[in-house]
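Subject: design request, 263 residues
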């Protein structure tokens, strides 16, 4: 809890930040952290040593995250001048934005087809964001009965390249993120004389970085490859034909489930 005048409170916060920074520096300079950063394995090191290195790295990241949050929070809240030094936030970012559009319309005795595409590209020092909005509508005229059926397809997506935020850990990484929201329907419903299209939304998010990749569906992570453990993870998996384990064993569903030694 902060007490005293504004200057005294700022001094207390600074002391706390200094202690956090020193603890972070001590963790980074520890033998376990040095071994982890250099990627070297000492003679006689066991698997528990790797676990210690991983735990040390996680501690460093957690401490750094807390230190960053505290610095940003105090800089935004205080914004005052103490002893000739200015506390506050300065931010500047150049950006370039461009928009492109496309319209296509075809009409005949059978109906009408309309297609519109809108894309926006925004470039900053941190990332490039490409946004796409595609919609296609088919209005088919039934000449025999004089009514019309409508079919709509809508795709809204985004591609981010550069420094992106991992949605699972909140950590910033260099990579590519691709997200898509796809809707399509051939059905309509009428309420109070108004016709509404029934849309079927589905969301996809793919994240690709130097540390691995992730695949999300409807806000749930379904598959990922993590360089930390070198393992491929999946929430659910279907093997259509066969699965081979190393050079010796093979599992197959052809003609029923079976396990065969092939070594």
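Subject: RE: design request

Done. Sequence follows.
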């Amino acid at each position: 809890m902060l007490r005293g005048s504004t200057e005294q409170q700022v001094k207390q916060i600074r002391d706390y930040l200094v202690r956090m920074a020193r603890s972070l520096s001590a963790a980074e300079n520890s033998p376990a952290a040095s071994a982890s950063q250099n990627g070297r394995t000492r003679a006689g090191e066991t698997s528990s040593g790797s676990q210690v290195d991983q735990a040390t790295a996680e501690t460093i990241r957690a401490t750094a995250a807390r230190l960053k949050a505290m610095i940003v929070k105090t800089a935004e809240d205080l914004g005052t001048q103490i002893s000739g030094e200015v506390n506050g936030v300065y931010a500047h970012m150049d950006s370039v934005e461009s928009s492109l559009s496309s319209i296509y319309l075809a009409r005949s005795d059978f109906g009408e087809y309309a297609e519109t595409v809108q894309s926006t590209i925004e470039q900053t020092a941190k990332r490039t964001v490409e946004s796409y909005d595609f919609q296609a509508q088919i209005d088919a005229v039934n000449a025999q009965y004089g009514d019309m059926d409508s079919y709509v397809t809508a795709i809204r997506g985004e591609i981010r390249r550069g420094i992106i935020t991992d949605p699972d850990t909140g950590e910033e990484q260099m990579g590519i993120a691709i997200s898509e929201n796809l809707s399509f329907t051939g059905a309509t419903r009428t309420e109070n004389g108004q016709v509404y299209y029934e849309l079927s939304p589905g969301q996809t998010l793919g994240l690709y970085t130097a540390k691995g990749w992730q695949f999300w569906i409807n806000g749930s992570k379904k598959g990922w490859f993590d360089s930390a453990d070198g393992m491929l993870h999946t929430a659910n998996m279907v093997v259509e034909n066969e699965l081979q384990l190393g050079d010796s064993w093979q599992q197959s569903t052809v003609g029923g489930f079976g396990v065969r030694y092939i070594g």
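Helices lie at 6-28, 31-38, 47-78.
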